[in-house]
Design goal:
The complex is a heterodimer of chains A (about 90) and B (about 800).
Chain A lengths: L1 H25 L3 H26 L5 H24 L9
Helix pairs in contact in A: 1-2, 2-3
Chain B lengths: L3 H22 L5 H17 L2 H5 L4 E8 L4 E7 L1 H24 L7 H20 L3 H19 L6 H32 L4 H6 L1 H4 L5 H15 L8 H4 L5 H10 L4 H13 L3 H22 L5 H23 L14 H32 L15 H15 L5 H15 L8 H4 L2 H25 L17 H19 L2 H15 L22 H18 L1 H4 L12 H23 L4 H22 L14 H19 L3 H21 L3 H24 L14 H23 L10 H7 L6 H9 L1 H23 L9
Antiparallel strand pairs in B: 1-2
Helix pairs in contact in B: 1-2, 1-5, 2-4, 2-5, 4-5, 4-12, 4-16, 4-21, 4-22, 5-6, 6-7, 7-10, 10-13, 12-16, 14-15, 14-20, 15-16, 15-20, 16-17, 16-18, 16-21, 16-22, 17-20, 17-21, 18-21, 18-23, 20-23, 26-30, 27-28, 28-29, 32-33
Classes of the chains: A mainly alpha (about 90), B mainly alpha (about 800).
């Protein structure tokens, strides 16, 4: 029973990734895509969590943490890029 | 071990090393005097071997060079080798003496000249005295090389360089062909030793490689000996100093090919093709050389074509002489005479042609020109030179009482005898041989007469000459006088050569004919009786005189041939054409576009692998594959659709983001295929590389955010699909055809028991296969340094950053 539920939730998460992917492809504006990417990242975290339950392993917990960090950094970097055109600003001297 | 014989062969090379020192140290003495000692001593040394070879003894001395490959520096002295060695050292001696007076001590770079000349002399001795084919080839190439250097001695002249390059190209081409032939001989007989190959000659006649080996070796011999159609380098080699022409291009190097033919006759002569090729090419060359000589106006040009023609004559006699092998008994064996004649004429030609070249050199030296249209009437001014010219030319024309007459008579005998030859269908068209030989002799007569009478008789034209002509100094005349006296001595007493030199040499060429204690009958007489040869000679003199006197009327005939049909034109066009064609060919595929090169690489990759896959019938799909889960399907759909987005998007940014999605999806695949370490690494690396892509995207100039429409090219589509299909098919095949169990069963237990780690992947990375990891770290380090250097180190515009 539990197992079936897990599978169903995994499929739902996967479908939501696909939908977010559509947004990435379609746009229309750059912030739309970045938000969609961020959402894919978060969905990936939950998917990895569900998969870990299905596989009954703790080996992927680091992956979840890492995804969280990367999704955050990526979104911030993209936002900065959209706003200022650069990711890392040079020191003004 | 190193014997005196080996030392004699390499002595010129050793002496060559000291030439520049002597030149510098004793600049007040002409360097030639020091050099003169080398050939003189060698000549005296080789004279000692005369009694040995006359008794049918041979001397062999072996020095190991590369024994594991069967290559030994083995010197072998027999009749044939000794004949050539004496020619090389004897004429070398006279040429060095002549060059001392010919080349000015002040104006010329004498150290170059004598170094090259000694190098050539040593190489030539090596060619004729080597018993090992590879060593022979080595010396053979050194003769080509030193000849190249000597022809271009006056390298500031355009024509010298042209002539040197031409002779180099042609002779080295032949040399390479010959090497191939030698290797074939080795693969047939298993030895590089000529004597051993001759001993096993009977076994290889039916071998598949026998005819190809013969053809390529003959190509080498023909190019070296300037046989038709490879004779074209010899007239252009006349740009060399005259002593060089006299030595290399009349007496020694051009006879290396003849030496080779004579040396390998016992191996190949049993076949009819050998006879046909050698005699046929020799006769063609004889005719064409003498025919072309008549149109020349340059004295050395005449002599060059005359050399070509005489070499053809010697070769044709050797070819006919090979027929002797088919008759066992010595009695009534007419063809032995042809070989005798070939060897006799070889010696004669060296004597009279050497003296004629020296004579031309004297005329050139004393009048400043070699053009027969500007010369004339020198008889009274230069009486000694005139005498030399008369004797040399008359001997060349085949007039009695000089030695040329004897060899010409013997040549006619050989050519007439061939009509009664009943092997290889030769009696049908054999009549062509004596007729062509006779016509060629008429032309020989004409140009010999031109040589004498156009130069020395008629009216002197002092206004056309740069200097006032006068007789040459005695030292310069000495060498041609010695040679010309040899012409007379051999003419009157030919038998001093017969049993001392010629007969032992014949024993080397036709070894199978001699039984125990037998010897060839080689007596040479002036008077044969009223034979057909005598009438042929009379005809030559009669018709030749008539034609010479009417030369002005028919010389225009030579203009009939268009220049585009000459062999020189063919050669020049080939050189230009090959160069143009290859540059066009290279230009057609080396476009400079990386796209094109990738196209070649990918199409070759796909074509070759698919061909091999199906040609070897290797494609297979295993039946029991792992079950496919729903997640894998979904992830695969994500992967494929993202890939399509990347391919067809118009926005660069979208493409970069799409790539990022791809990378993350792959990380997810790692998750569901249970590879946590890979998933971690993949995620970080993907993030970093997307960031780098964005960096590039931002910094590259002239690239807009929006792409122009990606142009569709059918070729690209086909190749990309082909590559994809190839990789897929090979992946499936590789997965389906496992030959043995994987070794992965070893690691799960061993990683804890032996390495003390539970994470198997990490244990493999740092314990079992730590060496790879080390080098991967190195790669990353190099990449980091590289990036740093590329950014910081800008040699141009350093201050910009």
């Amino acid at each position: 029973m539990m197992n079936i539920l897990l599978h169903i939730s995994a499929v739902i998460i996967a479908v939501s990734i696909l939908i977010a992917l559509y947004r990435v492809a379609k746009g229309p504006s750059m912030p739309d895509r970045v938000i969609a990417l961020d959402m894919i990242g978060i969905n990936l975290i939950s998917l990895v969590a569900v998969v870990s339950l299905i596989l009954e392993t703790t080996a992927f917990f680091e992956v979840m943490l890492l995804l969280g960090i990367l999704a955050f950094i990526g979104t911030v970097a993209f936002s900065k890029f959209i706003e200022k055109g650069v990711v890392i600003e040079r020191k003004r001297d | 071990m190193l014997t005196a014989l080996h030392f004699a062969i390499i002595a010129p090379f050793i002496a060559a090393v000291f030439v520049p020192f002597l030149y510098k140290k004793f600049s007040y003495i002409h360097t030639g005097w020091f050099v003169l000692a080398v050939p003189t001593l060698l000549f005296l040394y080789f004279l000692q071997y005369l009694p040995i070879t006359a008794n049918k003894q041979t001397v062999t001395a072996v020095l190991d060079w590369v024994p594991s490959l069967g290559i030994h520096f083995s010197a072998h002295v027999d009749g044939l080798g000794l004949l050539f060695a004496l020619l090389i050292t004897g004429i070398g001696m006279l040429v060095v003496l002549y060059s001392i007076y010919y080349l000015s001590k002040e104006k010329e770079a004498l150290y170059n000249f004598y170094t090259f000349l000694l190098m050539f002399m040593g190489a030539m001795l090596g060619v004729v005295l080597s018993d090992n084919l590879i060593v022979l080839y080595t010396f053979w190439e050194i003769t080509s090389l030193s000849s190249f250097l000597l022809i271009s001695y006056w390298y500031e002249r355009e024509k010298s360089r042209y002539g040197a390059l031409k002779s180099m190209l042609i002779t080295v081409m032949g040399g390479f062909a010959m090497l191939v032939g030698f290797v074939m001989l080795y693969s047939m007989t298993g030895t590089f030793s000529i004597q051993e190959i001759i001993a096993s000659a009977d076994d290889i006649t039916s071998h598949n490689l026998f005819i190809p080996a013969m053809l390529v070796i003959l190509l080498g011999a023909f190019t070296k000996s300037a046989q038709f159609p490879f004779h074209i380098w010899l007239p252009d080699a006349m740009e060399a100093p005259t002593p060089v022409s006299a030595y290399l291009h009349s007496a020694t190097m051009v006879k290396a090919g003849i030496y080779l033919v004579a040396r390998l006759s016992p191996v190949f002569a049993i076949s009819g093709e050998w006879l046909w090729l050698v005699a046929g090419f020799g006769l063609t060359t004889l005719f064409w050389g003498s025919f072309s000589a008549v149109r020349q106006t340059d004295l050395k040009g005449i002599l060059a074509f005359s050399t070509v023609s005489q070499l053809g004559m010697i070769l044709s006699m050797l070819g006919v002489g090979a027929a002797a092998i088919h008759f066992d008994s010595m009695e009534d064996n007419l063809y032995v005479g042809a070989t005798t004649a070939a060897l006799f004429h070889l010696i004669n030609h060296a004597t009279f042609k050497g003296s004629l070249f020296m004579m031309v050199g004297i005329v050139d030296h004393e009048t400043g020109t070699r053009d027969i249209r500007r010369l004339g009437g020198l008889m009274t001014v230069m009486p000694i030179t005139f005498t030399i010219a008369v004797i040399g030319s008359f001997s060349m024309a085949g007039l009695p009482p000089f030695n040329g007459f004897l060899s010409k008579e013997m040549f006619f005998t050989a050519m007439v005898d061939i009509t009664s030859f009943h092997l290889f269908n030769i009696d049908n068209i054999g009549i062509v041989f004596p007729v062509v030989a006779w016509i060629a002799s008429i032309f020989t007569f004409i140009y010999s007469m031109m040589l004498v009478f156009k130069t020395f008789t008629g009216k002197m034209q002092p206004e056309k000459l740069d200097v006032k002509p006068h007789e040459a100094p005695f030292g310069m005349l000495l060498s041609p006088i010695v040679l010309i006296s040899l012409v007379i001595v051999f003419g009157f007493f030919p038998n001093i050569l017969s049993y001392s030199v010629i007969e032992p040499a014949m024993a080397s060429i036709l070894p199978s004919l001699l039984g125990e204690g037998e010897q060839f009958y080689v007596d040479i007489y002036f008077w044969h009786g009223w034979t057909i040869e005598l009438f042929m000679t009379m005809g030559v003199i009669g018709i030749g005189t008539l034609l010479y006197l009417s030369l002005r009327k028919w010389v225009a005939m030579y203009q009939v041939f268009p220049d585009t049909l000459t062999l020189n034109h063919v050669y020049d066009q080939t050189i230009v054409g090959v160069e143009r064609m290859s540059s066009r060919l290279t230009g057609s595929y080396m476009t400079g576009f990386i796209r094109d090169y990738l196209l070649y690489i990918f199409s070759f990759f796909a074509a070759a692998l698919i061909f091999v896959l199906f040609n070897k019938n290797a494609f297979s799909i295993e039946a029991d594959l792992a079950p496919i889960s729903l997640y894998e399907v979904i992830l695969a759909i994500v992967l494929v659709s993202t890939a399509f987005v990347v391919m067809f998007t118009k926005s660069r940014l979208k493409a970069i983001i799409g790539l990022g999605v791809l990378g993350y999806t792959i990380a997810l695949f790692f998750v569901i295929f249970r590879a946590p370490d890979l998933a971690l690494t993949q995620l970080i690396i993907e993030t970093v590389s997307v960031a780098l892509f964005l960096l590039c995207f931002y910094h590259l100039p002239h690239i807009s955010k929006e792409l122009e429409k990606v142009r569709f090219r059918l070729g690209n589509l086909i190749i990309s699909i082909a590559v994809g299909v190839t990789v897929t098919l090979i992946g499936i095949t590789a997965n389906s055809s496992r030959l043995f169990e994987s070794i992965s069963g070893f690691f799960p237990e061993a990683s804890y028991d032996e390495a003390g780690g539970k994470n198997m992947v990490n244990v493999i990375l740092v314990d079992f296969r730590g060496f790879d990891t080390l080098l991967e770290i190195l790669v990353l380090g190099i990449a980091a340094f590289g990036i740093y250097t590329m950014i910081k180190l800008r040699l141009a515009g350093r201050n910009e950053l």
